[in-house]
Amino acid sequence: MAFNQELEAITHAFSGHGVDEKSLTTILGKWNPLERELYRKNTPHFFVEDHERKFQRWNDHCVRLLKHEFVRFKNAVVLWSMHPWERDARLAKEALKKGPSSYGILIEIACTRSSEELLGARKAYHSLFDHSIEEDVASHIHGIDRKLLVALVSAYRYEGSKVKDDTAKSEAKTLSNAIKNVHKKPIVEDDEVIRILATRSKAHLQQVHKHYKEISGKNLEEDLNDLRFKETVECLCTPQVYFSKVLDASLKIDVDKNIKKSLTRVIVTRADIDMKEIKGEYNNLYGVSLQQKIEETAKGNYKDFLLTLIARGG
Amino acid sequence: MATLVTKKSSPIEDSEALQKAFKDAEALHKAFQGWGTDEKSVIEILGHRNVYQRQQIRKSYQEIYQEDILKRLESELSGDFERAVYRWMLEPADRDAVLVNVAIKDGNKGYNVIVEIVCVLSPEEVLAMRRAYQNRYKHSLEEDVAAHTTGHLRQLLVGLVGSFRYGGDEINPRLAKTEADILHESIKEKKGNYEEAIRIITTRSKTQLLATLNRYRDDHGTSITKKLLDNASDDFHKALHTAIRCINDHKKYYEKVMRSALKRVGTDEDGLTRVVVTRAEKDLKDIKELYYKRNSVHLEDEVAKEISGDYKKFLLTLLGK
After folding, report:
1. A135, A159, A162, A236: which to substitute to probe chain B, counting the most B Cβ within 10 Å?
2. Pfam families attached here (chain A) (predicted)?
3. Does B172 touch chain A (CB under 8 A)?
4. pTM for the whole structure
5. SS3 sequence of chain B
6. What CATH topology corresponds to A1-58?
């Protein structure tokens, strides 16, 4: 390989999700000091030229970022081997600590897990953090999101298929009225909306979703202008669409580090549940296979690990 | 301590226990024969069996006679006696689910019962009850409670029903002080910030809550329940009051329920049955002692005075006579 090609390969090895360990070993590993100096001089976004003292030093910020990329594989492995209950409890705790930008993860956990899985997460939370999840959510979140989030994490929904269609119809109407009156009373303050979304079974909510479309012509999540409520409805009624969107957002180069982390989270938490359906939905929405997108964006061991996870079970 | 009197039997002696259960099932079947029912035998047998033995009897009866003994009891017995025996025979989680469901349908008379049940049970027992509720009614408990209530009352009840409190012994004294102050602020005015009071009462661990309530008493000289009484006009305040009393000292609360049930013009049989049936195997003895201390008369004597018939005999049996 010509040196220029090698340079390109190393740049590639460091760009994306994870790092290409193999290239780093075979190429960077064999470069002599001169070649490595040429590398530093030709990679200004990693190395800063100190003209006065005549050497090139690592940009500290980049080193920190690189650390995240090297550790991405390890994090995925650790998360994957964890008991699902501990996994969800830790993800919830982390989301609480990170603040409002991560509250969507709380909604994701509360709404896409089965009732027993959510219960398990709550038990694990006791064990790990000596508090109940609802007590921490309630005491850490002070804004308008509190009511909805506390209600969602406390739910133990009926999991059966029995639905009273009349009730579903009337609750669709209730939601429609609440949305029409949003200028008088914001959705987040509407107790009836919270009641319906936080207590009804998923089967019931699918019916409500269907009737809402019949009444208003649009999908419920499109008409809800509050981000949390939107996420809640998406997670409860169309989880695979939700997960596909999260995956797509995370599979872009140079995204926010929290968004990047959702790639690992979604794949590890859904690999055993509905990855097949998510792959199908992803293809529908974006016209490209999830596998291909991961091939393009992820690197090295991390990439291989993700591909293995999504290939399980067909 | 429990008041139930049973022959010494441990679940480990399985084959012996099974034999006994079979004999009991046969004896009960005999009691149902003929025109009337031999209520004395029903009371004599069922009134002296613990929860494990009663479930064995149900299984045995089903096996021998291809019939659920509960259905039989429903048709053979009647009135308060029937309701008491029926509830006695249900598995505890199932029974709690039934009691809560009845309370929901009772409207504003039932709110305190819902609060009582979810506040006294351990977090695991509440969970078991929620499962049993789903099995029976094909709805989640919180969905039904929410649909039947509004406003602060709904927030409180749904919060209580949905809680899965941490069960550890740790106390954070600083937090107890902060939250005692918050509670004080929230009930000070008529239109206080109940959201915070509800948050604290429905999510903190029981141990932490006790510390907070004690701190309140230390800081303000009186327990928070006395302060709440001034405002106890609407259902929400009454329910909040009940919640705190049950968390603080549920035996004292049960003594009051018994006292009200018996002293009222027209006894509250539902309350009587509920307390006796649900606590006979737990702490009814302590409640009896509290009753005597408070009223200078024995609970059994009061029951014997106010109640009559087979219902009375059954209650007295469970009370340990």
Report:
1. A135
2. Annexin
3. no
4. 0.89
5. CCCCCCCCCCCCCHHHHHHHHHHHHHHHHHHHCCCCCCHHHHHHHHCCCCHHHHHHHHHHHHHHHCCCHHHHHHHHCCHHHHHHHHHHHCCHHHHHHHHHHHHHHCHHHCHHHHHHHHHHCCHHHHHHHHHHHHHHHCCCHHHHHHHCCCHHHHHHHHHHHHCCCCCCCCCCHHHHHHHHHHHHHHHHCCCCCHHHHHHHHHHCCHHHHHHHHHHHHHHHCCCHHHHHHHHCCCHHHHHHHHHHHHHHCHHHHHHHHHHHHHHCCCCCHHHHHHHHHHHCCCCHHHHHHHHHHHHCCCHHHHHHHHCCHHHHHHHHHHCCC
6. Annexin V; domain 1 (1.10.220)
